[in-house]
């Protein structure tokens, strides 16, 4: 656009004006800075907005190679065509072959321009972005890479979980946060922290901590990092990136965790941290309950979403998103019919909550691919043009959900209170009856967590992208 030939002060000013104007024009009507009001996301001064979303961790990676940018454009076009309005993606690639950050504080400009391009395309297609800042797992670096950097600098760190408490590593991470948030997009000219296309920042993909199963270590880290993000970008929303595992704190339902064990996080307690604006869960009943039957997996799914929605409303008063869910297509284990049923069940539960004014107000399936991206297939991919039935289910859901957008948040709240008042009258006296076993041996938990991590690593060998075990 008008960015190519600056010359003299007047021309620069003109360029600046055009940039501001084009930035404003590029923002599709539905895309304004998203805020939070109670359990609802709001936009444009108190109007509700709901999210029908997808994961595409690969946007920056693919867009960093200009000849492949058409795939990013196609993905956004297909997504927008099916009413999707949220993409969750990686704003990190720590070390490795395709680094955004090749060493602490050293950035690859081509990768950054890939992220610039992805953000600009999201904006053009009216799709919000949830940008994740690092990984718990070692795909694209993550906490293990950060700890390795600190060791290379001569610091003695015991395990990858020292990521959460090492002063040196926390310094590296904060520098990454600052670098990304203050980045000025080379396509739009808008700083990331000023761009309403961005729904918010996720501190880490799926924080877990074997070193401290009770969740205290992750808790302290989130309590430090969420306010740090806010100190640089006070406008965007922040979330921790949790999968929803319950921990040791008050109001936690550890018995609902897969295998009933600790993963080093507290769903309620951590989402209460200052600076955390909304809660998240992930949902992989097939992998989490590996070997169990369809009925058990369905029961788990129902309990998982219900209990988190209940706790979010009761203890947090914030919105809740299912930021990852999926079903692995594997010969003899699950076929598309079963996958589509799962998809429908998740989307129906989101819609039911949203329509009833509940806190579960959106989700993002794992993961969207374009046709011809075979090397990124991981068994979870949904390729909209090649998967008519999934595309119909998703498109249908997006349209239904979009009809709920634009309500006055006060009216939604009043309706919810009336509904719950009536509900309480009917159920008065019934107790929630959650129990908690007190004979947990942390050592056994840690062992089981390791076993499951190992299982995830092994199963990721079957997926070429290895980003989603
Ligand atoms: C971080 O936590 C680990 C595991 O609990 C511990 O060994 C280490 O000493 C802690 N480091 C700091 C700096 O507190
Ligand atoms: C779901 O919750 C019910 C009632 O709280 C419990 O009896 C059942 O075991 C739970 N199922 C799963 C799979 O967690
Ligand atoms: C998918 O698997 C289920 C359960 O094994 C089976 O009943 C169904 O016929 C399969 N559908 C297709 C299209 O293969
Ligand atoms: C689309 O949504 C409507 C309303 O809930 C439902 O009746 C219909 O069966 C859905 N169609 C598909 C293909 O999911």
Automatic annotation (TrEMBL):
Signal peptide region: 1-25
Annotated region described as Disordered, given as residue ranges: 412-440
Record's keyword annotation contains Signal: yes
UniProt domain Glycoside hydrolase family: residue ranges: 34-367
Its EC number(s): 3.2.1.78
GO biological process: one example: polysaccharide catabolic process
Record field: compositional bias (Basic residues): 413-427
Pfam families named among the record's database cross-references: GH5_mannosidase
Keyword Transcription: no
GO MF annotation terms: mannan endo-1,4-beta-mannosidase activity
Keywords: Glycosidase, Hydrolase, Signal
SUPFAM superfamilies found in the cross-reference section: (Trans)glycosidases
Reactions listed under catalytic activity: Random hydrolysis of (1->4)-beta-D-mannosidic linkages in mannans, galactomannans and glucomannans
PROSITE patterns the UniProt entry points to: GLYCOSYL_HYDROL_F5
Low complexity: bias regions: 429-439
Family named by the database record: Belongs to the glycosyl hydrolase 5 (cellulase A) family.
Official protein name in the record: mannan endo-1,4-beta-mannosidase
């Amino acid at each position: 656009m008008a960015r190519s030939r600056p010359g003299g002060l007047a021309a620069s000013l003109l360029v600046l004006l055009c940039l501001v104007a084009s930035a404003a024009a590029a923002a599709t009507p539905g895309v304004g800075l998203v805020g939070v009001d109670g359990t609802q996301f709001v936009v444009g001064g108190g109007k509700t907005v709901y999210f029908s979303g997808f994961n595409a961790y690969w946007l920056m990676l693919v867009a960093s190679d200009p000849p492949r940018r058409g795939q990013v454009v196609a993905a956004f076009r297909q997504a927008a065509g099916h009413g999707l309005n949220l993409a969750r993606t990686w704003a990190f690639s720590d070390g490795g072959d395709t680094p955004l950050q090749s060493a602490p504080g050293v950035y690859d400009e081509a990768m950054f321009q890939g992220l610039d391009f992805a953000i600009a395309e999201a904006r053009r297609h009216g799709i919000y972005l949830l940008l994740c800042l690092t990984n718990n797992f070692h795909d694209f670096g993550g906490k293990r890479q950060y700890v390795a950097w600190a060791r290379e600098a001569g610091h003695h760190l015991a395990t990858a979980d020292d990521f959460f408490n090492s002063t040196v590593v926390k310094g590296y991470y904060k520098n990454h946060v600052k670098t990304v948030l203050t980045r000025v997009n080379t396509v739009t000219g808008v700083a990331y922290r000023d761009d309403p296309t961005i729904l918010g920042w996720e501190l880490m993909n799926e924080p877990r901590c074997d070193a401290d199963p009770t969740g205290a270590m992750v808790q302290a880290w989130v309590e430090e990092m969420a306010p740090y993000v806010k100190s640089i970008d006070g406008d965007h929303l922040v979330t921790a990136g949790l999968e929803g595992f319950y921990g040791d704190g008050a109001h936690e339902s550890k018995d609902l965790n897969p295998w009933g064990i600790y993963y080093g996080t507290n769903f309620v307690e951590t989402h209460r941290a200052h600076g955390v604006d909304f809660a998240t869960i992930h949902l992989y009943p097939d992998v989490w309950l590996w070997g169990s039957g369809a009925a058990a997996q369905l029961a788990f799914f129902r309990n998982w979403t219900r209990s988190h929605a209940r706790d979010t409303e009761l203890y947090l008063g914030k919105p809740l998103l299912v930021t990852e869910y999926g079903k692995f297509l594997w010969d003899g284990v699950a076929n598309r019919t079963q996958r589509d049923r799962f998809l429908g069940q998740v989307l129906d539960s989101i819609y039911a909550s949203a329509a009833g004014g509940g806190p579960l107000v959106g989700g993002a399936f794992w993961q969207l691919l374009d046709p011809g991206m075979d090397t990124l297939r991981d068994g979870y991919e949904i390729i909209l043009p090649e998967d008519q039935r999934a595309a119909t289910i998703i498109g249908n859901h997006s349209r239904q959900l979009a009809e709920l957008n634009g309500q006055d948040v006060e009216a939604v709240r009043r309706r919810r209170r009336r509904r719950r008042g009536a509900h309480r009258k009917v159920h008065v006296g019934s107790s929630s009856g959650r129990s908690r076993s007190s004979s947990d041996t942390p050592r056994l938990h840690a062992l089981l967590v390791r076993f499951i991590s190992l299982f995830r690593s092994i199963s990721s060998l079957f997926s070429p992208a290895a980003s989603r075990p």
